[in-house]
Specification:
homodimer, Uridine Diphospho-n-acetylenolpyruvylglucosamine Reductase, domain 2, Alpha-Beta Plaits, five-stranded antiparallel β-sheet, 17 helices
Chain lengths: ~475, ~475
């Protein structure tokens, strides 16, 4: 079969308007939001509209040994969904429907290309919400599943993993299987749903997702709390989590990050000058309750707790300012990018280890004569650091040092962004070889030819070899 | 090597007081609480005290192709941990320590033989608890992990799966690996922790478990609610879950089960005679809050909701009666066993499908001229049915009908007990062959010789062939 025959077959399958071919791609389809974009040209970018089409694509790819990269909205931050030269990109852009909303069972069944914003809009008429809240609302649910996305509400509600009840999958050979279902618990065989969540597109193509919803809590308050040191803000967190107040968000920002966030959004939060001058870090706490009375009581108790723990002041933000602050915080990645950030870290450590971790981060920064700014989901111990050091070689050394410190404290390399290609070298170097072997074995079970997002995670061939591999013979 | 040499090697490893050999076993070590005990004699029952000993046992078993059955407290209900003839039972009875309690991170690290009762006792001095609440407190944490145990508090707090952050595992070849860690989120490779949870001892020997704890809620109320029909009690559940009241327990009992529970415990709940005469089903709701004020408000709102939904009355039980009722409910399995129950079902269906499911159950019972009584974690759609039909063949047909109905409603065969040997034939017949093949493939990656709890789940050789296999040559 010639390349031209293959092109015709794929067009016949999805339609001419749903396919582009090398060299006529839209470059927007070829990368995510990683800071390290490399330009790789796949053979085809396809936009199927059904599971049947996805299965047929997988069968064709299997016959011709073509790599497949699943693509949601391309909002990933780790280079997880970058194409393989000569391979196929399956974009789920047109598989973006809500298939079923069950308000009795608190379950919604969606296609992978649906964005969080679209899901939220669909749910807004109900009294339910999908509580997981990764900042980027244009991200797709399929992408959320493949990276096990987290975000600001994880401290109370958990991450994607805790909200996916079932999946429909297209395997590498084109077989369609269903895992789990619209039930909240099961002890009926291996949990393949959980295995696929966070697998970064390497095990199967996710074509349908059953999500657990929860009742929207009608009463909310956002509390902004300045502290005199980074250390004091991170040390208050365990007490706050232990209080039983169950904050829906528990974020910290160091003073430089806070300043970047507010000035980029021209946001005036009304913090007294004397307090602002002493503040070196901020805590943002969101409380959500069923009743207004409970919210009032919780705010009073939270205020007392924070003052006892050394807060400089406690501001209950007006609703408008609160939503603007959260939005501005969501946009932080773009602010950092504009400022020339070279790496975004999302190490997770045990909550109580955050102070030690940040002390060590400051030491590492000082050693490399660069300042590392940060913020993060401090209630989860999930810290986002912005690294600006320009020299590639030295930055690689610095990054490795950060990961080693994080792992040494009982943490993990990535709390929510995934390994992708950006962190893969570190992941390979720092993960127990036995674990890597188990992962490779599981990969072979699902995808014996390694066609689905190859060269990722445990694959020693590494992402930078992409361009050498899988190039389709003309 | 002779059998006698092997025996000496194993005694040298764990000590003579920690080993028994065929035919001198204590029969208590050879079965769980399944209603279908078959007597199978392993070669050895060993009680190691360390991960190193477990790893050494696995290496020996690997060399001699001996099956290994992991054993916790033997409280399983599905025949999941029954020995293999000629194999080794690894009992975790002596690996029952709390290794580390971190009240800042809300994390506890335990050995698998620790019982829930022992864990609760250890935590009682702190302000934290392990919120998962399977009825049987003598069950081991290792057993809970291997069956993904659920229980009464799952409706609010989730099941075991949502509380295990990391594991230490001994693989079939004796290699020790760690998965996850004391962090609440991670997107760093395949989630092997989740894969092992619920795998019923078939993938690895779990030697250490890191659990997530949560703050104890100091204020609790147990509310007993009689309804005039089974249907009305199950129909109220979605409304209750949607209310945002977040009950910690949401149980139903049909009138016959309630009567069995209360009379076995000589429990007088103070229900008015006129109400009791009309009641055909009961709901038990437990509310837990941070403050007494919130509890009072929640009780008022719950009462209003229940009365609007047709409750015959609403009783807030005195603390003593409440704890006795919950304890009596926990002991229901034993009451049913004394009454001659032949099968306990733990099918899970979508919450809103419970009324249809129970209608169909009644129809199936009528067709087989037997009455099927029930209760269950109705907030999760997890229904426990007691089947008394004596004829083995007809009961097998009836069971298959129940599973088919449950699966047809979007459910799963087991919500929390696991498949074990008791439900394996049904599981094999009713599960997508592609899913079974994926499971077999994963099993081969972890345990290529199929030595760890062989013949379970996807294994077509089925449990009743145990006795034929793995018999050690003298």
């Amino acid at each position: 079969m010639t390349t031209s025959d293959l092109r015709d077959e794929l067009i016949g399958l999805v339609g001419g308007d749903a396919a582009t071919f090398y060299p006529d791609h839209n470059t927007d389809d070829l990368h995510d939001e990683s800071l390290h974009v490399t330009h790789v040209e796949p053979f085809a970018v396809l936009r199927p509209t059904s599971t049947e089409q996805v299965a047929a694509i997988a069968k064709i790819a299997d016959v011709h040994d073509l790599a497949i990269t699943a693509r949601g909205s391309g909002t990933g931050l780790s280079g997880g969904a970058t194409p393989v030269a000569g391979g196929i990109v399956v974009s789920f852009e047109r598989m973006n429907q809500v298939l079923r909303l069950d308000t009795n069972d608190h379950v919604v069944v969606v296609q992978p290309g649906l964005t969080l914003r679209e899901l939220n809009a669909h749910l807004s008429a109900s009294s339910l919400r999908y509580p997981v809240y990764p900042g980027e609302l244009s991200g797709s649910i399929g992408g959320n599943v493949n990276t096990n996305a987290g975000g600001m509400r994880a401290v109370r509600h958990g991450v994607t993993r805790q909200h996916v009840l079932g999946l429909e999958l297209v395997l590498a050979n084109g077989t369609v299987v269903r895992t789990g279902g619209p039930v909240v618990k099961s002890s009926s065989g291996y949990d393949l749903t959980q295995l696929v969540i966070g697998s970064e597109g390497t095990l199967a193509l996710v074509t349908e997702i059953t999500l657990k919803l929860s009742p929207t809590l009608a009463n909310a308050a956002t509390i902004l709390v300045p502290f005199a040191s980074l250390d004091s803000v991170t040390r208050v967190v365990p007490t706050l989590v232990a209080s039983g107040l169950q904050p829906s968000m528990l974020e910290y920002l160091d003073v430089r990050t806070m300043s970047a966030v507010t000035s980029a959004a021209s946001l005036e939060l009304g913090i007294e000058k004397a307090v602002a001058e002493r503040a070196l870090a901020y805590l943002i706490v969101v409380l959500e309750t069923r009743t207004p009375e409970q919210l009032e009581n919780d705010i009073v108790d939270l205020g007392a707790l924070l003052e006892a723990e050394g807060a400089l002041d406690v501001y209950v933000l007006p609703e408008h300012a609160a939503s603007r602050l959260i939005e501005a915080r969501e946009r932080l990645f773009w602010v950092s990018k504009d400022a020339g950030v070279k790496e975004i870290v999302d190490i997770v450590v045990p909550r109580s280890a955050v102070p030690s971790f940040l002390e060590e981060v400051a030491r590492i920064g000082a050693r490399h004569a660069t300042s590392i700014t940060g913020c993060g989901h401090v209630g989860d111990g999930n810290i986002h650091l912005a690294v600006y050091l320009p020299d590639d070689g030295e930055r690689h050394v610095l990054m490795r040092e950060l990961f080693v410190v994080g792992l040494g404290l009982g943490g993990q390399i990535s709390g929510e962004h995934g390994i992708g290609r950006d962190k893969q070298e570190h992941y390979l170097a720092l993960t127990d070889p036995t674990v890597l072997d188990l992962e490779r074995g599981i990969k072979r079970v699902f995808d014996p030819k390694s066609l689905l997002n190859p060269y990722r995670l445990f694959d020693e061939r590494l992402a930078h070899d992409d361009a050498l591999a899988h190039s389709l013979k003309e």
